[in-house]
Write a structure and sequence with these properties.
Strands 1, 5, 6, 7, 8, 9, 10 and 11 form an eight-stranded mixed β-sheet that branches. This protein folds into two domains: 89 residues; 235 residues, 2-Layer Sandwich (BirA Bifunctional Protein, domain 2), CATH 3.30.930.10. α2 runs antiparallel to α4. The chain contains eleven helices and eleven strands.
Length: 359
Amino acid sequence: MTIDIDKLEAALFAQLADAQTEAALEELRVSALGKKGSVSELLKGMGAMSPEDRQVFGPKINGLKNALNDAINAKKVILADAALDARLLAERIDATLPAFPRFMGKIHPIMQVFEEVAVIFADMGFTVKEGPDIEDDFHNFTALNFPEKHPARDMHDTFFFEKNSDGVAKLLRTHTSPVQIRTMLNEKPPIRIVAPGRTYRCDSDQTHTPMFHQIEGLVIEEGVHMGHLKGVLMEFLARFFEVETAAVRFRPHHFPFTEPSAEVDVRCDRSGRELKIGTGDDWLEILGCGMVHPNVLRQCGIDPEIHQGFAFGLGIDRLAMLKYGIPDLRDMFNSDVRWLEHFGFEPFVSPNLATGLSR
């Protein structure tokens, strides 16, 4: 019996020496110490031994079991460390080499269009103005001639905050028109500004999101009329869509802050797979505009008998979709790098009128 245990021990430790992987170690452990392993079978056989034999062979079998188990665990640690060293060596990089990232980042189409629009209007003599996203009722509604019961003042159209201690509720601005009010209150005519920024309304579908982007324009001068408004918009649309001319038509509409008010359509061609601006027999609604309402001028301390003005508003997201063929507005806010890699713009080329806006 003693010879059998010695031979088994020698054989098992020889297998241990040959095992060079964690899988091989596990196979050895199961074959020796598993439920039906060779050492486990010896332990099971001790029940049939005499008390004298158990005193002799019991310590040897248990000693073999413990020694083999400890040796297997020790080698397992050694093999795991060696595998980690090999993996780290294979993954080693030379930090002195130049980096070649797969995707270096691009300008989002919304920011690209913001820049394009700002460049065009700056060339026409407009100044860019900005204002807060969180507004009060006066700047967002009252000063813009919104009636008390206007639907835009309802919770289902506008994001309102909780009322403060004096009973006044702030809100997320529904347009960038409050920037026009702030400008007219703080500056004297002549005024010629554009106001880009984020706006918020309770709406969400393929062409609407709760947060979207607008740019609005305002001109306050003596002798301003609808002809000036039409000329500015035609020039802008031709430059933005990079066509020779942009035929437009004005349809009567209603906005509380302008009178008369109009929606503007631009001539286009929908016959092919791509929308073409400036040609064809179709029309596409593109923006809203009108002459600044006298009540708005009075709210801002401007005499409507002396100064007149016009205003217009454009959806930046919509302009980006039309110009660059983006099918779904919601994709703009999904933070998908693959989408940005496809629709984005190189960050090293700024839009300019000399070499082209969208190069």
